[in-house]
Amino acid sequence: MTSQAVSRPSASGILPNAAATFEIRFESIGGLGAHGAGQILATAAVLRLGLNGASFSSYGSEKKGSPVRSFVRLTPSEAPIRTSEPVELPDCLVVFHAALIRNPATFAGIKADGTVILNAPAGPLPELKVLPKTVRVFRVDAGVIALQEKSRPNAVLLGTLCEAFPFLDAEIVREALSEEFAGKHPEAVASNDRAFRRGQTEVEVVTGIGEAVGALPAARSEPAWGFTTQPEGGIVMAPGSTFWNDLSMSRVGWMPVLDTEKCVHCGTCDLVCPDLCLVWGDGEPGAKYLRVLQGVDYRYCKGCLRCVESCPTGALAKTAETPGLADSLRVPLFPEFIK
Ligand code: SF4
Ligand code: SF4
Predict the structure, then answer these.
(1) Residue having the nearest C-alpha atom to atom 3 of ligand 1
(2) Is the CB of residue 311 below 6 angstroms from any atom belonging to ligand 2?
(3) C-alpha torsion angle, residues 290, 294, 300, 303 (rounded to 10)
(4) Which atom of ligand 2 is nearest to the CA of 247?
(5) How far is the CA of 278 from the centre of ligand 2 (A)?
(6) Residue 221 has what pLDDT?
(7) In this structure, what DSSP letter does residue 241 have?
(8) pTM score, two decimals?
(9) Antiparallel, parallel or unpaired: β 22-29 and 51-59
(10) What's the pLDDT at 86?
(11) pLDDT higher for 97 or 164?
(12) Sign of the C-alpha dihedral, residues 85, 91, 97, 102?
């Protein structure tokens, strides 16, 4: 894997004729702003770039923490968009969280000459071997930039997207981003602006990583259970509330860490945790507490930090998440499911 400075492709290679459609798929986790990014991009395309555009999203069973896909279609103004099908064969894939590259479906359908924009920190990316050799890969550490700028990854990734595709005029898309926030959150305009610009400049083109030949096949997922095979009563057999049973990728740099010395086992944190990821056990016989808080199962923790805000003793601390920290401190809720 090598890196090089970003080289802009010719605009004439994109939307080359009236029949062409440029299709983008955002692979994301609820809460990272993929839906908003799609809307901003399609709106900018229609109102400011002279294109036709459409965007829509599909969500999991709950929005924040669940896989989310957002789709954007762009065509020349004279070519109407007559479909609202999910984008199965994208020209560009934008991956909002590095954890998503573990899911093979993330890259399904990418064209041989497609582009992948990845939110990931520096380091090896062996999972990307599945990509076609001829795909362009742009990497930007959007999570860290968003954290530093008090923005969200979507602003950073929109900047990188415009850098990768010059027909998406960066100044116009940035203005659309600013307008989106100017009404409801004027205080966020400057931070999103900075995040967008850093997405344009702090990007690395990763080369020599894909090994596949030709486009990847599209994935059409089949439901795990049909009406003849599902468990009686619609019982959900797996713990957790998403089909991946893993909300860890929705954390954006912070996690709660328990100091058992300070904990008085009052249960306040458990009352406010939306995902029931605090793990309790029996107290020692004869000890002061019948039930004691043992820790957090970070697999289900989305990092909302409500528990930290509610803790009366400061036993739960807002802590910067470093690689491996959550795994090392995790107290599993369902140890019987860990292989
Ligand atoms: S709110 Fe704080 S003190 Fe109470 S159980 Fe939770 S961590 Fe312990
Ligand atoms: S940060 Fe705290 S309240 Fe939020 S999901 Fe994690 S454990 Fe629950």
Answers:
(1) 263
(2) no
(3) 110
(4) 5
(5) 8
(6) 63
(7) S
(8) 0.70
(9) unpaired
(10) 92
(11) 164
(12) positive
Phi then psi dihedrals of residue 296, to 5 deg: -120, 135
Distance 192 CA to ligand 2 centre (A): 26
How confident is the prediction for the chain on average, in pLDDT? 86
DSSP H/E element including 296: strand 291-296
Distance of CA 108 to the CA centre of its chain: 16
Q: Is the distance from the beta carbon of residue 268 to the nearest atom of ligand 1 less than 6 Å? A: yes
pLDDT digits (tens, 9 = 90+) for 38-54: 999 999 999 999 899 99
First to last CA, the chain: 33
CA-to-CA distance for 316 and 311, rounded, in angstroms?
7
Q: Is 311 in the pocket of ligand 1 (CB under 6 A)?
A: yes
The alpha-carbon radius of gyration of the chain (Å, integer) is: 22
Nearest by Cα to 81 from 120, 26, 28, 24: 24
Tokens of 269: 């944190």
Six-digit token string for 123: 């380091």
Question: What's the average model confidence in pLDDT over 77-90?
Answer: 89
pLDDT tens per residue, range 134-158: 999 999 999 899 989 999 899 999 9
Please indicate whether residue 62 or residue 325 has the higher confidence score (pLDDT): 325
Q: Which residues neighbour 224 within 8 Å (Cβ) at sequence distance 6 or greater?
A: none
Any residues with CB less than 8 A from the CB of 127 and at least 6 apart, and which?
A: 101, 102
Which amino acid would we find at residue 70? S
Ligand 1 pocket member 265 (CB < 6 A): yes
In whole angstroms, give the CA distance from residue 241 to residue 114.
Answer: 33
How far apart are alpha carbons 135 and 108 in whole angstroms?
Answer: 13
Distance CA 160, CA 203 (A): 7
Task: Inform me whether the pLDDT recorded for 235 exceeds 80.
Answer: no
CATH assignment, 238-337: 3.30.70.20
In CATH, 17-207 is 3.40.50.261:
no
b/e sequence 84-102, b meaning 16+ C-beta within 10 Å: eebbeebbbbbbbbbbbbe
Kindly state if the Cβ of 264 falls inside 6 Å of ligand 1: yes
- Domain locations along the chain: 17-207, 238-337
Amino acid letter, 30: G
